[in-house]
Amino acid sequence: MLDGEASEDKLDKELKNLVNPKWDFQIKELSSQEFGVSFPDQNSLDTFSKFTRVELALYGLKVKISKSSIDPSASAILLPTWIKIFGVPSFARKEDIIKEITGLVAETIKVDSFSLLRDEPVRVRVNCRDPAKLKGIVEIFFNGVGYNIKFLAENAQGSSSIGRGGPPGHGKYDDKQDRKDND
Questions:
Q1: Residue 2 falls within a domain, yes or no?
Q2: Region Disordered: which residues (predicted)?
Q3: Range of the domain at 137
Q4: Which of 49, 72, 110, 177 is the S-S candidate for 125 at Cβ 3.0 to 4.6 Å?
């Protein structure tokens, strides 16, 4: 998806209008911006995958159609993304502990070792179902003491920070910049 609010039903209607009204496209939502589709023949897939974008007529959706190596019978895929982990206590800023913490919300690929040394959120490369939905707070206990650990995907399509409500204004917290707005 390049632009628009898509659903399996909307895409099915659009593709039936564009390609073949009798074909079952077997559309599966893989993430909020990605769908798996089974085309009726290789020629139609080859034709549409050559375009940089296709604007669909019924709902005005703008899409990029590309060939996939994913098995059409797969129920979901994991997408790689970087996440930030806030609130990790200093004694827990070790790679093996961060991998355990990250394992609560996603599949760990790599821990950014430089972020472990700095007084900033820990960055971790992960695989997850939908990076846009990877945000939240989990209370984790170390030796009987609880800490609120916040997870947030970096640059996820459609993702938003865990906000404090309302638009930024003078002296209010600006979630997008992770700082106070003092303009």
A1: no
A2: 158-183
A3: 79-158
A4: 110
